[in-house]
Each structure stands twice: as structure tokens, then as C-alpha cells.
Write a structure and sequence with these properties.
This protein is an alpha/beta fold and 415 residues long. Helix content is 29%, strand content 26%. Strands 4, 14, 15, 16, 17, 18, 19, 20 and 21 form a nine-stranded mixed beta sheet that branches. β7, α5 and β8 form a beta-alpha-beta unit. The two termini are 42 Å apart. 48% of the residues are buried. The structure holds ligand LLP. Ligand LLP binds next to α10 and α11.
């Protein structure tokens, strides 16, 4: 376990100063628990890396879009990276500053573009010539000038899972870096566009930072070329992607060090830096608390059936991702065994861990699935008509429910 804000005291797992078992008892299981101190600490680690360099830290809302978390980050000075009208709605509802919102994504609809311009967002990270023309025409209709960056694809292998690698030529994202100068030239002709940025994002859960630096190098070269051609580039958006440790002992890049490296690399060019971190801010701040329902032995395997499933945390099923699983009551000398940890959903793909060494557990015992703060609840579903779980935010010795567990009525609302 690599979570700073989670620790055992007298054999009991705490988030900050709250015993997770107390939360489980009152909020029920499964439920997500997040540490406020951990979220803020990670956001501040980004800030520290930038120091005096002009910058904007645009939290990637997709990682965890709970209003309370957005409000917390807005209060700490964050901007936001959004990929849909729904995410913009959430940011505004949470009191986020629209002037610090960047809109990313390969398939923005006319309605979303309209909503974003009317809300006064900072800029669009534009991904295609068609999108550029659409943004210009909607801006013209609204009588506004709109800031854009093109998301360029530097063709760099982020060396991460293929589903979350985005910076290769074969990926659907961005525009080829070689085609960028022509597109920037065309963009200057559009009267309602302020062509002031360049953006790139090469993938997520990046554990080696060299590809990030390589990508920055390629993009900087482009910036120089564009400026020489008269495009007034003022900011560089380096995307998100910094990885976190999902397994005890797995090294993850240090946030502040990595940002410093990027800052040094881009220094002296009169560029404001933007970044769009998601996972590295909220991932390690959250756990998914679940209760053991049954132990089950088949001829071949041992199973621990728990009340959380792929509906709460799809990462193991979708990316074969590893999440450490630890007991809420420390193991002591209970002994260990090897089992698959599985949920109630009717899919063989519904598992939280395969062949995992666990301390002896019994039905009724509580477990924490670690590093579940990012892309956990955000990717949850109602499959098998399972109500979505509660979410809880811990602050010191206090905790509050920041999303109530869904009811059966919630399941059928709208049908
Ligand atoms: N900016 C853009 C344009 C992105 O596409 C993403 C993530 C981010 C920023 C934030 O990246 P982060 O700092 O969180 O790595 N569901 C997957 C992750 C998908 C990431 C998609 N894009 C998972 O659970 O691993």
C-alpha cells in the first residue's frame, strides 16, 4: 500500500483520523472514501513544481467529477480540463472559474461548443480541421473571439497500456505534428479564433517521464516554427498522464520533480504552461471499501466474493489493472491464502484481483481496494441494476457523505 493518508493504528485502517470501518458501518458498502489532505497535498505538489513560472493546473475532471472534489480543487486555485458539456456543467455548479477551463476531446458537439463559448471558457484544445471551422462559426454567431490550441500528436510511445496511450500516429487523438503548421496557418484566417496555444497529451498512467520530456521537445520545436511564421503562441498545454503507484513497492514519478523538469525544459521562452493532471491528484487519495460476502472453493480455485464489482471499479476488467487489496483489520498472524477477488456481477470479467495473496478473511470482513480515487466512481455503471455506491470525503477527524448511495428508484428514474 502506498497511500500516505491511510495507515494502520492498533490494527485498524484509518483514512486520516477516521477508522474506515466506522465509515463502512454508517455509510454502508461498497463505498468510495477519499482523503481531502491527500488530494490537496497532491495538487500543492504540482503548484510547488511550478514555483513562479506562469502556469495553470487544469484538473482533468474525468478522473473524479464529484462536485465536492471539484469545489475543493477550485478553492485551491485549480483550473479544469473538461471533455464534455456535462463536465462543464459540473465545474460551473462547483463554483469553478470558467476562465480557467480548457475543453479537450476528439468529438465535441455543436451544442457543447456553444455552451462552452457562452460560458466563457479559457480555450479549446482543437483536434481536427472540421472542429476548428465549427468553433469559428459558432463563435461568429455568438459574436465572440475564442482562444484555441491545436492538440498535436507527437508520435511518441508513452509506454503505458494501449487503451490509454494516445500519442501515437495510429491513435484517434490530435493532429499529426507535421500537418500542424498548415493548420495553424489556416486557423489565422478565421476571424473569430485567437490562435494562441499548442497542446499535447500522450497518454495516462505514465511511469517513466522521459516520453513526456521527449514530447515536450517535439512540441517546443513546433512552437518555435509557428512563432517564426507569425503565429502568436503564448501557452503550451502538456496534458496529463503522470502515473501513480498501484502496488506496494512500485515506484511512481514524484510530482514536484517531474513538473520542475518540464519547467526547466521549457524555460526562457515566454510561454505559460498548462497541465491537465487527473489520476495523480485523486487516484492515491481514494479507496473502495467492500465487504466479503462469501468464501467459495471450486475444484480449481479459491474465490472471495465481495459486494463491490466491476460496476464500481472497472479498471481490473478493462485494463487488467492491479489494485492492492488490504483488510480494514490488520492481518496480524492470521495466515495467508491465494484467491480471486470477484464481485456479484454476472460476467467472468467481473474481478477485482486474480490469484491474489490475501490474509485469511471471513464473510463479513471489510477490505479496502487501494488507489481507487481516479477512474473508479467516474467509470461506474448500473449494470445488473446495481445502485451506484456512496462517496465519502474525509477531512481530519471529520467525514461527510459527498454522494449518497443510489436507491432502486434512482435506477428507474427516466424510464
Ligand atoms: N488530458 C487529456 C486530454 C486526457 O485525455 C486525459 C486522460 C487527461 C488529461 C488526464 O490524464 P491523467 O492525468 O489522469 O492520466 N480510464 C483510464 C484512464 C483514461 C485516461 C483518459 N484521458 C484508467 O482508468 O486508467
Amino acid at each position: 500500500m502506498n497511500l500516505n493518508s491511510y495507515h494502520y493504528s492498533e490494527n485498524t485502517l484509518y483514512c486520516e483520523q477516521v477508522a474506515l470501518a466506522d465509515i463502512a458501518r454508517r455509510a454502508g458498502t461498497p463505498c468510495f472514501v477519499y482523503s481531502q489532505a491527500e488530494i490537496l497535498g497532491r495538487f500543492n505538489a504540482y503548484k510547488a513544481g511550478f514555483g513562479d513560472t506562469p502556469h495553470e493546473i487544469c484538473y482533468a475532471v474525468k478522473a473524479n467529477s464529484n462536485l465536492s472534489i471539484l469545489r475543493l480543487l477550485a478553492g485551491a486555485g485549480a483550473g479544469f480540463d473538461i471533455v464534455s458539456g456535462g463536465e462543464l456543467f459540473r465545474v460551473l455548479k462547483a463554483g469553478g472559474d470558467p476562465g480557467k477551463v480548457v475543453f479537450s476531446g476528439v468529438g465535441k458537439t455543436a451544442q457543447e461548443i456553444d455552451y462552452a463559448i457562452a460560458s466563457g471558457i479559457h480555450s479549446f484544445n482543437c483536434e481536427s480541421p472540421d472542429e476548428m471551422r465549427l468553433i469559428d462559426s459558432i463563435a461568429a454567431r455568438l459574436g465572440k473571439k475564442v482562444r484555441v490550441a491545436f492538440r498535436v500528436n507527437p508520435d511518441i510511445d508513452a509506454r503505458t497500456h494501449p487503451y490509454i496511450s494516445t500519442g501515437l500516429k495510429k491513435n484517434k487523438f490530435g493532429i499529426a505534428i507535421r500537418q500542424a503548421p498548415r493548420l495553424y496557418g489556416e486557423a489565422l484566417e478565421h476571424k473569430n479564433l485567437l490562435v494562441e496555444g499548442v497542446s499535447c497529451h500522450i497518454g495516462s498512467q505514465i511511469l517513466e517521464t522521459d516520453p513526456l520530456v521527449e514530447a515536450a521537445d517535439r512540441v517546443l520545436e513546433l512552437v518555435e516554427g509557428l512563432r517564426a511564421a507569425g503565429v502568436p503562441i503564448q501557452y503550451l498545454d502538456l496534458g496529463g498522464g503522470l502515473g501513480v503507484s498501484y502496488q506496494a513497492g512500485e515506484p511512481a514519478p514524484d510530482i514536484t520533480d517531474t513538473v520542475r523538469r518540464m519547467v526547466e525544459h521549457t524555460a526562457g521562452r515566454n510561454l505559460t504552461l498548462h497541465i491537465e493532471p487527473g489520476r495523480s491528484i485523486v487516484g492515491p487519495a481514494g479507496v473502495l471499501v467492500t465487504r466479503v460476502l462469501y468464501r467459495k472453493h471450486t475444484e480449481q480455485k479459491e474465490f472471495v466474493v465481495v459486494d463491490a464489482a466491476m460496476t464500481e471499479l472497472i479498471r481490473p476488467a478493462l485494463y487488467n489493472a492491479h489494485h492492492d487489496i488490504v483488510p480494514l483489520r490488520a492481518a496480524g498472524n492470521r495466515g495467508t491464502f491465494v484467491a480471486d477477488v470477484v464481485g456479484p456481477v454476472c460476467e467472468t470479467g467481473d474481478f477485482l484481483a486474480h490469484d491474489r495473496k490475501l490474509p485469511q478473511v471471513m464473510p463479513g470482513d471489510l477490505l479496502a481496494v487501494c488507489t481507487a480515487g481516479a477512474y473508479g466512481f467516474a467509470q461506474s455503471s448500473n449494470y445488473n441494476s446495481r445502485p451506484r455506491p456512496a462517496e465519502v470525503l474525509v477531512d481530519g477527524a471529520q467525514w461527510t457523505t459527498i454522494r449518497t448511495r443510489e436507491t432502486y428508484d434512482d435506477l428507474v428514474r427516466g424510464e
